[in-house]
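STRUCTURE:
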């Protein structure tokens, strides 16, 4: 079987359970070959499928996320190591970085805080965007912090990124020019499917209504947002009104940004003028 044939066969098999079957097959093949996906696609007619590819496809068919199989995930302009100890970074979360880039179009944030940093995706993406900035990532999981620290080192950002264990903003002194916050926001009774089932439950669920952690975070935001700064906060697609109400009650001004699918995805909180 040629490599293109192997990719086609894997795509058909994976399509039963994956909405991104072709991409999954290409990423797994590139990993098996030890190449980037781009290099593999350019050379696919000159390469033979390795014997290890079939086992990788079987792992994906069993429900294991591609990011866990290959050990990495691209996010914004960086590539991150991911493990079952962290939330897999997803394109929807890039909406927070897009909001920050738009806000700081004519200047750069000097200080960045990432609450619930996980793999470090948001903080490290922001630090790669603004080379003079420094940042702090906070997470309750020691295992997640270890992954974030390793990612910072691999990306050459360790000198500008500090990580510490913590319970959201408790004990964090501000203010910061940019806050990036992606808390758990799924209600405990909401049905889930797909790769999200392999994410740590502590990174997903936030009480019956999905708002428990927003209620914890909101009161600290006025003291943590520097004048002229923003907090970019990820939300579930139906949570804009409920989370906005929590932020407005703290005296903040709030606007909504949608993701590429057109869903409400990011709330931008600033000090009221």
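SEQUENCE:
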């Amino acid at each position: 079987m040629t490599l293109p044939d192997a990719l086609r066969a894997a795509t058909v098999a994976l399509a039963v359970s994956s909405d991104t079957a072709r991409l999954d097959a290409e990423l797994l093949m590139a990993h098996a070959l030890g190449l980037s996906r781009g290099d593999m696609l350019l050379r696919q007619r000159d390469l033979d499928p390795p014997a290890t590819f079939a086992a990788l496809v079987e792992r994906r068919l069993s429900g294991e996320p591609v990011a866990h199989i290959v050990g990495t995930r691209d996010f914004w302009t960086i590539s991150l190591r991911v493990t079952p100890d962290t939330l897999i970074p997803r394109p929807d979360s890039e909406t927070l970085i897009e909001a920050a880039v738009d806000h700081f179009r004519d200047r750069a944030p000097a200080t960045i805080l990432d609450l619930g940093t996980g793999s470090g995706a948001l903080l490290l993406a922001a630090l790669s965007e603004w080379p003079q900035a420094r940042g702090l990532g906070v997470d309750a999981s020691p295992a997640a912090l270890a992954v974030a620290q390793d990612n910072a080192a691999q990306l050459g950002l360790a000198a500008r990124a500090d990580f510490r264990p913590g319970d959201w903003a408790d004990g964090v002194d501000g203010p910061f020019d940019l806050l990036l916050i992606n808390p758990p926001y799924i209600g405990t009774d909401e049905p889930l499917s797909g790769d999200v089932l392999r994410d740590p439950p502590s990174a997903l669920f936030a009480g019956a209504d999905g708002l428990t952690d927003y209620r914890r975070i909101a009161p600290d935001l006025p003291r943590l947002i520097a004048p002229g700064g923003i907090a970019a906060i990820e939300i579930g697609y139906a949570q804009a009104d409920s989370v906005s109400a929590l932020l407005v009650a703290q005296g903040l001004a709030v606007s909504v940004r949608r993701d590429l699918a057109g869903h409400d995805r990011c709330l931008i909180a600033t000090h009221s003028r």
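REMARK: The longest helix spans residues 21-33.
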